[in-house]
Amino acid sequence: MIRKATLCLFLLLSATSYAQQKGAYKDVSIPNKDITLSGTLIIPPGDKPVPAVILISGSGPHDRNETIAGKKPFLVIAEYLTRRGIAVLRYDDRGTSRSTGDYESAILPDFAADAQAAFNFLRKEPGIDPGKIGILGHSEGAMIGQIMAAGEKYLGFFVSMAGPAQDGILMAKEQSNLLYKDLPAAEGKVLRDIMDTLRQVVLEETDTVVMNSRIFNFVGKQYDSGELGLGGLITKEQFVEMYIANYRRPGFKALLLHDPTKFYSRIKCPVLAVNGDKDVHVDCEANLRAWKTGLTATGNSRVTIKAFPGLNHLFQRCKSCTIFEYGELPETISPEVLAYIQEWIAVQTGLKKS
Questions:
Q1: Are 249 and 302 found together in one domain?
Q2: Xaa-Pro dipeptidyl-peptidase-like domain: from which residue to which, for each copy (predicted)?
Q3: For residue 145, is it within any domain?
């Protein structure tokens, strides 16, 4: 019969072994000037310092898991990489969940400063190899990563997941074409024209009050025209507010004015850019080509690009491949993509021979 003390010791050792197998979870606070980012760091078990990656979320205020349509892709990525020897730091966007600050007033350089603060924090963290820390940005997170990577000479590697590599205006136009390509021709044209006009308003106006007024009047007229057939589906006020909310943020104008070519010459670390070929937010072929040509033209020969057939913007194997099925698909992120990214990082950091 097992004595009580022996049983307690057995349970304690079993729990410790299980925790070591899963890795150590640690809630962290990351200071950046007048704000504090709240995040989670997972470090694999072991005695030696390990490589690490910082996850940077895409557009919109996201928590540390980049929760989208009920899916938690950053949680899946973090646990997958940690089980294979790579520490992962992910954090709530400023002004979101437990992080302080204001998301609405922030622009790309502000978010890049947040990523830089996370990098500086991680370099001092016990158990992390300071020479093998990289970043992984999804969608807009890769644009943020471009700015951060261009200013950080000690960055170990950079992974772009569905990240734009073209200037913001061209990217926005391509996105409109992709989003509306399956609509009836007349309806698609109306929506593309609306987007084109609104982008022009945002670029032209420096006065927020005037810009809001122009958007309000223009979008209201589109609703009243009846061409979109929205009567009974959404009120005019809801329709107009939706557009104003999306376009009045300083961050949106900053996105349109973002030019990756200004940063490519200063990105010296290895870069991996991956895309799903069914992505309706970021054109797969055009942007992967832009990553490759943009970086190699400025002297970075360590650039890898990879297109994944049949995957959407979230790297799910999709059916209709529209934005409306993100939450309906059973998959959070394709295992094929997870394995490819992990193996690439392992090669860059010496966990695996090339």
A1: no
A2: 37-163
A3: yes
Closest to 116 in 3D by CA, of 97, 92, 135, 94? 135
pLDDT in tens, 274-297: 999 999 999 999 999 999 999 999
Residues 182 and 241 in one domain: yes
Within a domain: 231: yes
> Do 208 and 64 lie in a common domain?
no
- Phi, psi torsion values for 42, nearest 5 degrees: -115, 125
**pTM for the model:** 0.89
Q: How far apart are CA 228 and CA 217, in angstroms?
A: 16
Contact 333, 325 (CB under 8 A): no
User: Is residue 155 within 8 Å of 179, Cβ to Cβ?
Assistant: no
Check whether residue 108 and residue 132 sit in a common domain. yes
The predicted-structure confidence for 232-259, as pLDDT tens digits, reads as follows 678 888 888 877 777 888 888 999 999 9
Give a yes or no: residue 327 inside a domain: yes
Residue 14 is predicted with a pLDDT of 33
Can you tell me the distance from the alpha carbon of 137 to that of 93, in angstroms, rounded to the nearest whole number?
A: 13
Q: Which run of H or of E encompasses 50?
A: strand 50-56
SS3 content of the chain, % helix, strand, coil (to 5): 45, 15, 35
